Amino acid sequence: MSQNAAATTPTGPVLSDRHIDPHAYPHGVAFLDGQYLPMSQAKISVLDRGFLHSDATYDTVHVWDGSFFRLDLHLDRFFGGLEKLRMTIPFDREAVTEILHNCVALSGHRAAYVEMLCTRGASPTFSRDPRQAVNRFMAFAVPFGSVANAEQLRRGLHVAISDKVRIPPASVDPSIKNYHWLDLVRGLYDAYDRGAETALILDFNGNVAEGPGFNVFLVKDGKLSTPGVGVLPGITRRTVFDLCAEAGLSAAAIDVSVTALKAADEVFITSTAGGIMPVTMIDGAQVADGKVGPVTSRLMALYWQKHQDPAWSSLVRYR
């Protein structure tokens, strides 16, 4: 029997007393309205402005080998976004940290993708005034996932550059992590149509901006550069600058043209979902010799080594 048929009788539609969710979800634990729940039970209202208007901010941190990586920086960005969007939550940093630890501990995951988020929420009267909405904090932990799979990490990602333009910072402050992804999603479909695995889109001046959930770096003559404006200041992006400072490498945030990116000696992308990931093909053409380069390989190794550094990682308090 179809879902439509199940919702009606010969006399008309039936009002169900509860929702039955037919969808599957990854194993994990969510925090919502003061409760820790299986992911399948974590729901928001269809009247929530986060859903209706993408009026929300969030941040993601990963757990690797039982430790959070650079959690303090992610908390800084999340609370900064709340302030800029004039949202409030009934938890301070210490309480949010505890909630995130609890989500991971209850899930049992030793490698996890962990998200904290706040939506504008819903108004009891469905008012269009955002000040009437009750802000809503949520968090969850699910298994760790990467932008690049094992094969792509080994041989490098194949990327296409879409002509779609990232929302300019005069419209949406890119330092506020947000769910405005339609430009990125359209870019992804451009990439898929051209046989690529992921996409980069442009900024408002026609330079390279970023991709869906990641920043991009190029290496030329041993020097690194990454787009400097109109992009999310990613935590992994910052980590690359920190690693370069320790390793004696030059790195700068500047305008990056499409021509410069394609002429690079090496290209890689950065994300909490995967770390530092090589790119070896752009728009169907090889980057340099088409192999993962030495600077990229060095930084990848340093990045994962830093996960053992207590100054950068904090142990999950498993029960």
What does this structure look like?
The structure is a single chain. With 319 residues, the chain is an alpha+beta fold. The protein is 27% helix and 29% strand. The protein is built from nine helices and 17 strands. It has helices at residues 3-6, 49-53, 71-84, 93-107, 150-155, 182-193, 235-247, 258-262, 294-305, and strands spanning 8-9, 12-13, 29-32, 35-38, 56-64, 67-69, 112-122, 134-143, 157-165, 198-202, 215-220, 223-227, 251-254, 266-271, 275-282, 285-286, 313-315. The strands form three sheets. Strands 9, 10, 11, 12, 13, 14, 15 and 16 form an eight-stranded mixed beta sheet that branches. A hairpin with a 3-residue loop joins strand 14 and strand 15 (275-282). The longest helix is centred in the first third of the chain and has 15 residues, at 93-107. It is globular and about 70 Å long. The N and C termini lie far apart (44 Å). The model has no long low-confidence stretch (mean pLDDT 96).
Provide the succession of SSEs. HEEEEHEEHHEEHEHEEEHEHEEEHE
Number of strands: 17
Rg from alpha-carbon coordinates: 21 Å
Report mean pLDDT, rounded to a whole number. Answer: 96
Q: Determine the N-to-C terminus distance.
A: 44 Å
Envelope shape: globular
Low-confidence stretches: none
Which class of secondary structure composition applies to the elements?
Answer: alpha+beta
Helix content: 25-40%
Describe the largest sheet.
8 strands, mixed
Report the total helices.
Answer: 9
Instruction: State which percent range the strand residues make up.
Output: 25-35%
